[in-house]
Amino acid sequence: MKSLIAGCIVAIVIAFIGVFVLDSVQKPADQAFATSSVRL
User: Kindly report the CA angle at 28 between 23 and 32, in degrees rounded to 5?
Assistant: First the structure.
């Protein structure tokens, strides 16, 4: 039972770390697809 709870806690922690990493890496669409000839 302790290993199940520990596994759930580790999975939640990894998910939160992934959210923060992806949030810092990804760009909004208006920045990612903007070129000199595009109006948004």
Answer: 120
Spatial separation of the C-alpha atoms in residues 23 and 38, rounded to whole Å = 25
Chunk the chain into consecutive blocks of 10 residues (it has 40) and report each block's average pLDDT, rounded to whole numbers.
96 95 79 66
Q: Cα dihedral sign for 16, 21, 24, 26?
A: negative
Identify whether the C-beta of residue 34 lies closer than 8 Å to the C-beta of residue 40: yes
C-alpha dihedral sign at 20, 23, 24, 26: positive
* List of residues 6+ apart from 34 with CB closer than 8 A: 40
